[in-house]
Amino acid sequence: MKNKSNEVWIGDAQIANDPAYLSESNQEFHSLTVVQQLEDPSQVDLNSNRRDFLKYLGFGLGAATVAASCEIPVRKAIPYVIKPDAIVPGIATYYASSFAQGGDYCSILVKTREGRPIKIEGNSLSSVSKGGTSARAQASVLSLYDTSRIASAFRVKNGQIEKPASRNKKGPGWEVIDAEIMAALNATSQIRIVSPTIQSPTTKKAIADFTIAFPNTRLVTYDAISASALIQANEACFGEAVVPNYQFQNAEVIVSFEADFLGTWVSPIEFATQYVKNRRIEDLKNPKMSKHIQVESHMSLTGSNADNRIMVKPSEQGAAILSLYNALAALSGLPSQSGPSLAAEKAKKIQNPGNDPF
Asked: What total number of domains does the chain contain?
């Protein structure tokens, strides 16, 4: 109801000017602090609701933070004096590049923010990797933020690490090391560069330019995980010293002996892209999928994806291959070959894995 002055009454207590109502109206916001409320038992409502719980919890955390004298680190945002055209704060920039390490090769797209690479993805425009990457390629961006990276020049002398002082006593000393290396290169008659297999055209061009400047240079290639045995085997069998190019997407049956072609063997990123194409059932009316048998002596990424994984010892690899050859020769009417024998149980698994004939 309303009075004559068009004021709104919210109840009989307001009309009668009840003292208790007037006292509560004057204390719309509680005058006691949280600490005083906690010290006064009469002010503590044991049947607290969610809002009171969060209030007391927030006060407790805030008090603990102040008591511990925790300081929030200061982060300063400094604007560009002259902003680069390719960098927009808050907007990611992508660069096309290549990753090559050991047997891994793939075309990649590097996502950067304010000039810092933060993520690597495959480039779908690549005719080799088809947008695929590996765990090593994905993790390679972490090496750019390695705190153990060399921050200054140093030399190793008699097993001891020495850091040469810079000429201006402020720099990392690279000019001193460069001068010592140039003096040594000009004084020697033979220069050898030891490196793994180089796939980068830029690196090859740099070595070629170096060889022109120092004609007595020779490049020595050494791979910790070498494919020389595969090259020699192809030269002995087919007369060409090459690494074969496999097409797993066209294979109906894949038999691999100790070759982890999905993990580390030859070109795993390229092979993985081909392998999955024939391992997916797309036509439900005429389902078709390749069959994969892996013969190995240890657990590998390729073996974990195989339909049938057969365990043999490393010393039994030759006997396992011979057992498979004799099984295929018998089906083709060709004579069998003699050689080391394999245990009957393992030979049966290789000759007829999963009770399905090859």
From this structure: 4
Q: Please give the Cα distance from 50 to 140 (Å, whole number).
A: 47
Q: Is residue 174 part of a domain?
A: no
Q: Looking at residue 125, which CATH number applies to its domain?
A: 2.20.25
pLDDT by residue, tens only, the chain of 358 residues: 444 455 676 677 777 777 877 777 766 555 566 566 666 666 555 566 777 777 777 767 666 666 665 666 777 877 778 888 878 888 888 999 888 876 678 889 999 988 889 999 988 888 888 888 888 888 889 888 888 877 777 777 777 777 766 655 555 577 778 888 888 888 888 899 998 888 788 889 999 999 998 888 999 988 887 788 888 999 998 998 888 888 898 888 899 998 888 888 888 888 888 898 888 877 777 778 888 999 998 889 999 999 889 898 888 888 888 888 888 888 888 888 888 888 888 888 887 766 544 3
**What is the C-alpha R_g of the chain?**
37
pTM value > 0.70: no
End-to-end CA distance of the chain: 95
Residues 219 and 259 in one domain: no
Residue 86 lies in a domain: no
CB 13 within 8 A of CB 20: yes
Helices and strands, counts by H and E, the chain? 12, 10
247 shares its domain with 345:
yes
**Are 52 and 130 in a shared domain?**
no
Q: Are 20 and 114 part of one and the same domain? A: no
Cα–Cα distances in angstroms (integers) from residue 103 to residues 45, 197, 272, in the given order = 69, 9, 13
> What is the 8-class DSSP label of residue 221?
E
Q: Are residues 103 and 55 in the same domain?
A: no
Question: Residues 220, 265: one domain?
Answer: no
- Domain ranges, residue 343: 243-355
